[in-house]
Amino acid sequence: MKKSVFGLLLLGLPMVALAAKLPVVASFSIVGDMTREIGGDRVEVVSLVGPDQDAHVFQPSPADVKRLSASRLFVTNGLGLEGWMGRLTKASGYKGLMVEAGNGIKTRMAPAEEGEEKGREVTDPHAWHDPQRVQVYIRNITAGLIKADPQGKADYTRRAAEFSAKVKQQDEWAAQQFAAIPAAKRKMLTSHDAFGYFGERYGIKLLAIQGVSTEAEASAKGVAQLVKQVRQEKVNAIFMENMTDKRLLEQLTREAKVKIGGELYADALSKPNGPASSYLKLFHHNVETILQSIR
């Protein structure tokens, strides 16, 4: 060991290379990527719900319990997204720090799922689709990393500022693009109600087959009403999502006579070789895909 340390010093390599990385568990791939962007080389991030997987219906495995129990920081979205989180933390006996990335965000309400009390509304957890709200995610994650690893404060603060600037740049670009499209054309239909914050930010009217969670299936009556509304609203395109069943959307394209506008990434990143392998790529891909269909 002494020889290896001496060799690294001779090579001029920083001593931080010898330090163990901060073990972090993220609830799903999107907040996992944000944490990785801010943490850089000081962290080792594992996402429980991976690329192209659905955080709404996730069921933790014994391996996930083991991963969480070995971590020092657990980053979640919060806002009701991870209904399974309480069971997982109890099973793992987790005693480390927890950060709810969405804590403090001004939330929007959305209609409850099918079969629930009529007129009831629930918190929409998909706040990451509004880059302005993502700035809150960045602040919360940065604070959590600094608390877990105070020695990394300067690095985390610097990387957070850089990431924040990139998110702001994407937001300004998207706002400019959508502002150039007449309001009457800014309409879209998605497979579940994941883009409410996105629509609110950029003035887009949204329709969805399912509610804010993918757990409840749309009824035949609900689909028939949606077909009628799509025709009345003159919606140009239906958008598929990377982690949902496409058969229902294909049925709607036939019955409502609208085209499939492309694939959006709602609740998960793509795999590393896909078009949405990071949060910034996900956002850019979604904007480009929507723009191509509603212009």
Q: Structural class, from secondary structure content?
A: alpha/beta
Radius of gyration, in Å, reads: 21 Å
| Helical amount | 40-55%
Q: Quick one: biggest sheet?
A: 4 strands, parallel
Give the CATH superfamily of the largest domain: Nitrogenase molybdenum iron protein domain
- The geometry reads as globular
Q: Enumerate how many helices there are, as a single number.
A: 10
Percent strand: 15-25%
For the termini, the CA-CA separation is 62 Å
CATH architecture of the largest domain: 3-Layer(aba) Sandwich
Taking strands numbered 1, 2, ... along the chain, how are they ordered across the largest sheet?
2-1-3-4
Instruction: Report the strand count.
Output: 10
Overall average residue pLDDT: 86
Describe this structure in words.
By secondary structure, the protein is α/β, with parallel strands linked by helices. It has 2 domains: 16-171, Nitrogenase molybdenum iron protein domain (Rossmann fold, 3-Layer(aba) Sandwich), CATH 3.40.50; 179-294, Nitrogenase molybdenum iron protein domain (Rossmann fold). Helices cover 44% and strands 17% of the residues. The chain contains 10 helices and 10 strands. It has helices spanning 2-11, 29-39, 62-69, 85-92, 131-148, 153-179, 196-202, 220-233, 247-256, 279-294, and strands at residues 22-28, 43-49, 73-76, 97-100, 109-111, 121-123, 187-192, 205-210, 237-241, 259-264. The strands form 3 sheets. The chain has a 4-stranded parallel β-sheet, with helices on both faces. A 4-stranded parallel β-sheet has the order 8-7-9-10, with helices on both faces. Strand 9, helix 9 (247-256) and strand 10 form a beta-alpha-beta unit.
